[in-house]
Amino acid sequence: MKTLIVGAGVIGTVYGAHLAAAGHKVCVLSHRPRTDEVAAGGLSARDVLGEGQVDAEAAVVPDASGKYDIVLVAVRRDQLASACAGLAALAGKPAIIFFGNNSAGRLGITGDIPGDVYLGFPGVGGVMTGETAAFVRVRQQPTALQQAADPRLAELESALVSQGFAVQRVADMDGWLAYHAAFIACIAAALYRCGTDPVRLAVDRATLTLMCQAITQAFAALRADGTAGLPRNLAVLHSPMLRAVAVHY
C-alpha cells in the first residue's frame, strides 16, 4: 500500500513511522521546516512507556499529485481548509482518512476532494522532542476508524494492529467526534480550573464532580439535538445515576 501523510506532527509521525514499519510505502506532503527533517532523517517515533522506537524512511513530496492508496490527514481543525485545498491534486480515488479532533465531522471537510472520504481518530498522544515523536498509546482510547466495507481501511487496520495499536470501528464517526469534543472540552475546562495540573485535579473532588456534571449535561444536549454516536462506555459512565462512579473513575 502506498500512503501519503498530510501533517507530520506527532500524530502523522507516529502513524507514518509504524505504517512504514508494517510495509507501507510512506510519503509525506512537504510542509517546511518539519518535512526538511523528515527528508534528512525519516520518521522517528518513540514509545515513552518502554515499548521501543520505530525509525522509518519516508519520501517527502512537494504536492499531492501522486497516486496513493491511502491518504492520512493528521492536521488541526484550523488547518483543515488548507489541507483540503491541497488534496484537490490527488490522482485516482484514494481512501482519504481525516484523522483528528474535528467536531464538525464531514461538515468541516471542504472542497472537491477526489477519493473516498472517511473519518477517524488517533489513539495516541505525545510531543515532538527534536525530530522524534515521543508518544504513549491511550489505553482507554483505541485508534478509531470509520466502519465501512472499503478493503483499504481493512488493510490499514491490519497494518496498525500488527504494530501493536488497538483499533475500533465506529459506525457514526460524525457523532462520535462531536461527543468526543464535548467530553474533552469539559476535561480541559477542569484542568484549567486547576492550573492545568492533572495531579491537582485528581485530588480536587469538587472540580471533578463539576466536570462530570458538565459532561453529563453536554451529552444530554447533544442527544436532545438529535446527535447519535455516543460511545456506549461513556454513555453508561456519565449517566446521572452513576455520577459518583464517574467522579471516582
Helices, strands, pairings?
Elements lengths: L1 E5 L3 H12 L3 E5 L4 H8 L1 E5 L4 E5 L2 E3 L8 E4 L6 H8 L7 E5 L16 E6 L2 E6 L2 E6 L5 E4 L4 H12 L4 E4 L2 H21 L4 H5 L2 H20 L7 H6 L5 H6 L1
Parallel strand pairs: 1-2, 1-6, 2-5, 3-10, 6-7, 7-8, 11-12
Antiparallel strand pairs: 3-4, 8-11, 9-10
Would you give an account of this structure?
With 249 residues, the chain is α/β, with parallel strands linked by helices. It folds into 2 domains: 2-170, NAD(P)-binding Rossmann-like Domain (Rossmann fold), CATH 3.40.50.720; 174-248, no CATH class. The protein is built from 9 helices and 12 strands. The strands form 2 sheets. Strands 5-2-1-6-7-8-11-12 form an 8-stranded mixed beta sheet, sandwiched between helices. Strands 4-3-10-9 form a 4-stranded mixed beta sheet, with helices on one face. Helix 3 links the parallel strand 6 and strand 7. Helix 5 packs antiparallel against helix 7. It is globular and about 50 Å long. The relative contact order is 0.12. The model has no long low-confidence stretch (mean pLDDT 94).
